[in-house]
Amino acid sequence: LSICSRTVEPLEYYRRFLKENCRPDGRELGEFRTTTVNIGKCLCSITTADGSALVKLGNTTVICGVKAELAAPAVDSANKGYIVPNVELPSLCAERFRSGPPGEEAQAASQFIADVIENSQMIVKEDLCIASGKLAWVLYCDIICLDYDGNLLDASVFALLAALKNVQLPLVMINEETGLSEVNLKQKNPLIIRKHPVATSFAVFDDTLLIVDPTAEEEDLATGTVTIVTDEEGRLCSVHKPGGSPLTGAKLQDCITRAITRHKEVKKLIDKVIKSITPK
């Protein structure tokens, strides 16, 4: 296959590979790119964060930093803290993104992450409350794409989960006499993670063919995409399908089955890395 045909007729070029049940990068249709995760202070760029992680999915590279701050709870949610996710796609990560206020794709990704946090109940907001009506934790979760080559959502959810697993919050008490908060930095506790959501994304080719973990090029050529989020019990937390080709019930079930398998792979990877950085 000449390189010329890839430039002139990229879709035809891809179809020739797909007929052989493989892709130009050598992967099978249901195969993920090499996935790696680094957790914690090994990330010199965000040592100020209370938890951090860097995830690579092929060339797609995403970093997540979690900053914990104290604030008064909202009046109508006196016993709840806050989680504020934000996804950034800076111009340095790909030519398609521009400097300035967040574009449509970054806003959609931030909303998707907020929905995953809410639907999966990975963190219960009541767990972030220190004193009802007085004091609670706010977790600012900044997810920044350093290199964009497709499948931003899978990498972002993975980086968020890994960074949250790395957060240690100091013990905070409210002094009864003064009414002021006292922070004990010597006594820290890990964040309570109730569920471990993992995202698995697919691109749809020619309305029928599903390929997992699409690159940026594959996303551009696809007739649609779908992202399935599951937890460790195989429960469906979210199905994200922004338009494009409709999927049959059978195809959707195929995606869910693959997502459940992927969950096990990602969870195993996170557990292995956390075990390696935990002091003996």
Automatic annotation (TrEMBL):
RNA-binding in keyword set: yes
Protein origin, superkingdom: Eukaryota
Major site of localization recorded for this protein: cytoplasm
Sequence ranges assigned to domain Exoribonuclease phosphorolytic in this UniProt record: 31-170, 197-260
Location within or outside the cell: Cytoplasm; Nucleus, Nucleolus
Keywords per UniProt: Acetylation, Cytoplasm, Exosome, Nucleus, RNA-binding, rRNA processing
InterPro entries, A to Z: ExoRNase_PH_dom1, ExoRNase_PH_dom2, ExoRNase_PH_dom2_sf, Exosome_comp_Rrp42_subfam, PNPase/RNase_PH_dom_sf, Ribosomal_Su5_D2-typ_SF, Rrp43
SUPFAM superfamilies (alphabetical): Ribonuclease PH domain 2-like, Ribosomal protein S5 domain 2-like
Pfam families linked: RNase_PH (PF01138), RNase_PH_C (PF03725)
GO MF entry, a single one: mRNA 3'-UTR AU-rich region binding
Cellular component, GO annotation: cytoplasmic exosome (RNase complex); nuclear exosome (RNase complex); nucleolus
GO biological process: exonucleolytic trimming to generate mature 3'-end of 5.8S rRNA from tricistronic rRNA transcript (SSU-rRNA, 5.8S rRNA, LSU-rRNA); nuclear mRNA surveillance; nuclear polyadenylation-dependent rRNA catabolic process; rRNA catabolic process; TRAMP-dependent tRNA surveillance pathway; U1 snRNA 3'-end processing; U4 snRNA 3'-end processing; U5 snRNA 3'-end processing
Family the UniProt entry places it in: Belongs to the RNase PH family.
UniProt-recorded name of the protein: Exosome complex component RRP43
Lineage, uppermost ranks: Eukaryota, Metazoa, Chordata, Craniata, Vertebrata
